[in-house]
Amino acid sequence: MNTEKEVLSILDETLSLKGRSAGFSKSTPLLGAIPELDSMAVVALITSLEDRFGFTVEDDEIEGRTFATVGTLVKFVENKLPGGS
Question: Is the pLDDT of residue 26 over 70?
Answer without folding.
Answer: yes
